[in-house]
Write a structure and sequence with these properties.
Blueprint lengths: L3 H12 L4 H7 L6 H14 L17 H11 L7 H8 L3 H11 L3 E4 L8 H17 L2 H4 L2 E10 L10 E4 L2 H7 L9 E9 L3 E5 L1
Antiparallel strand pairs: 1-3, 2-4, 4-5
């Protein structure tokens, strides 16, 4: 809705004899031509710019009651996607997505997986780096043909795309969910091939 001052200016210009096209040129496009014509029509009908009732048909799906229900549902600890919410409230998936994005101003964020390092882990990494610099020489590395390592997760596969949280910003999402290491049980398999031997070990 335009400011009250703009509406009063349009009303005064119309009383001075300017038509809708002339008013639009006077305002230099700050108000659309269609809006000015709508205001002029209201002035001719009632003498004022009546904007008490919004234009268009009333909402029958995205009502205030449904928006409030969706907000309360998203505030629970039990997470739900937009498809699940749409199914629970018996509305279309597109309508629920518009409620979440446009009416509630929320965006979907996934959990960020980060290494769950402790101070003890950092000390061990530092000591291992010092040991490598002291004991591994360049001549030893030239004999290595291939080396690789792989982590195998015992707890199964975790797909973070299936675990989303709705929040207005990334910072708010991080406050609601902790950065977590979901693969608590895992082991590392390392392999190294030298000129004369194959070394395989599990950590």
């Amino acid at each position: 809705m335009k400011s009250k001052g703009t509406q009063e200016l349009v009303l005064r210009l119309h009383k001075e004899g300017l038509n809708g096209n002339e008013i639009h040129e006077y305002l230099r496009g700050t108000v659309s031509r269609a809006t000015i014509y709508s205001w002029v029509k209201s002035i001719n009908r009632s003498g004022t710019i009546d904007l008490t009732s919004p234009k268009g048909r009333p909402r029958i799906i995205r009502t205030k009651t449904l928006i409030q229900k969706a907000k309360q549902r998203l505030s629970r600890k039990k997470k739900a996607s937009s498809r699940i919410l749409a199914k629970e409230m018996k509305v279309s998936h597109i309508a629920m997505r518009r409620i979440i994005k446009e009416d509630l101003g929320l965006k979907p964020y996934v959990k960020r997986v980060a290494p769950k390092l402790t101070e003890q882990h950092k000390i061990k990494r530092r000591s291992f780096g010092i040991w490598v610099r002291k004991n591994i020489r360049k001549s030893m590395t030239e004999k290595i043909l291939f080396s690789d390592e792989k982590y195998f997760d015992i707890d199964g596969i975790y797909n973070k795309q299936n675990d989303r949280i709705y929040a207005p910003a990334r910072e708010e999402a991080d406050r609601k969910i902790n950065l977590a290491n979901f693969y608590k049980k895992s082991f590392k398999l390392c392999i190294k091939i030298n000129w004369s031997e194959l070394i395989l070990w599990k950590n």
